[in-house]
Design a protein that fits this description.
13 helices; about 65% helix; alpha/beta; four-stranded mixed beta sheet; about 325 residues; 4 strands
């Protein structure tokens, strides 16, 4: 039985590599994760970027490095040439009258003001302030873009496994092979299970690839597997239903896109809405999956909460399956 299931899986993989759309679905989550990783440093980057001369006070350079990026250049001509480049670099030259600020005029709005504020801080360093300033750490070290972006991406791409199964079913309908399978030695269970294996393997591959790309290597991967598999199951059910009732790839993809609305809505609601509004999203399995992934990434997850959230997802999945079972059975005959 297992051999026949693996044969169905291997056939789907081979077929998927020939289909440009399926290959795109397999690759695009990795590309999105790489782009997201590249965006995170810029989101939390230093506020200022300045150029100074080698003759500048080392203490002045050290203070600037605490607030941004500093380039040290040999002379005034080199500094002016650097400022004239297309990026937002502002030149600072210490003189007897104070600090001369050189801007190219093409800086982003507010760049000059931020550098001016830092220079004022240096010039007033010996001023006794009439207030006592204390700094405290509230424990927020992770970029919100990394936290929510990673959780959002993992939950969203869990749907892609169902999409691949859907497209493979459409291809078999077009090739008229479903009828042949019904009279072959393989049972319907073996056929469905073999088809469904890719719907679980692909989301797991995407989830671990995304986590590694984003640098989350110390989280609990066992909990991640539970969450991804539970949400992949309901995506797989929709993949079977849509694949059975569509005769071409474009109409199947269009039907699947309609499902993106509740997926996006429930996850955006979890991010942006106050907790008092969250009960309105309890019907969505993607809401519970997103909450679980968010706790896993923050390394605050405990097995009790993960299993409870996964139970909610499975209960919702069973209700959906009960409603669609007859349609799936009829479509595979």
């Amino acid at each position: 039985m297992l051999t026949r299931m693996i044969a169905v899986l291997a056939r789907d993989l081979k077929s998927g590599l020939r289909d440009a759309m399926i290959a795109y679905i397999m690759i695009v989550p990795i590309m999105i994760a790489i782009v997201l990783k590249l965006l995170i440093p810029s989101a939390g980057a230093n506020l200022i970027h300045v150029a100074v001369l080698e003759s500048a006070d080392p203490a002045f350079i050290s203070m600037l490095e605490e607030h941004g990026r500093v380039e040290v250049l040999a002379d005034r001509d080199a500094l002016i040439t650097r400022v004239a480049a297309t990026d937002d670099v502002i030149g600072l030259i210490e003189t007897q009258q104070g600090t001369e600020l050189i801007a190219g005029g093409n800086e982003q709005e507010g760049a000059v003001e931020m550098v001016t504020a830092v220079v004022d801080l240096w010039q007033n360093r010996d001023l006794d302030l009439p207030v006592l300033v204390r700094f405290s750490d509230v424990g927020w070290e992770l970029s919100p873009l990394a936290q929510y972006g990673t959780s959002f991406l993992i939950v969203f791409v869990s749907v892609f496994g169902g999409m691949v199964v859907m497209l493979n079913l459409v291809e078999e309908k077009q090739a008229n092979t479903l009828a042949a399978i019904n009279v072959s030695a393989i049972s319907r269970f073996e056929y469905v299970a073999g088809k469904g294996m890719l719907g679980f393997i692909l989301p797991l591959f995407h989830a671990f690839a995304i986590l590694l790309i984003m640098g989350f290597t110390t989280i609990h991967f066992g909990m991640t597997v539970i969450v991804v598999l539970s949400i992949a199951l309901i995506s797989l059910i929709f993949g079977f239903v849509i694949g059975i009732y569509n005769d071409n790839s474009m109409s199947a993809v269009s039907s699947m896109k309609i499902g993106f609305i509740p997926i996006f809505g429930s996850m955006f609601g979890a991010i942006f809405l106050d907790d008092k509004w969250h009960p309105f999203f309890y019907w969505s399995p993607f809401y519970w999956a997103f909450r679980s992934m968010d706790q896993i990434i923050l390394e605050q997850a405990v097995w009790k909460d993960m299993l409870l959230n996964s139970l909610y997802i499975l209960l919702i999945t069973l209700m959906v399956f009960a409603l669609l079972y007859k349609r799936i059975k009829r479509g595979l005959t």
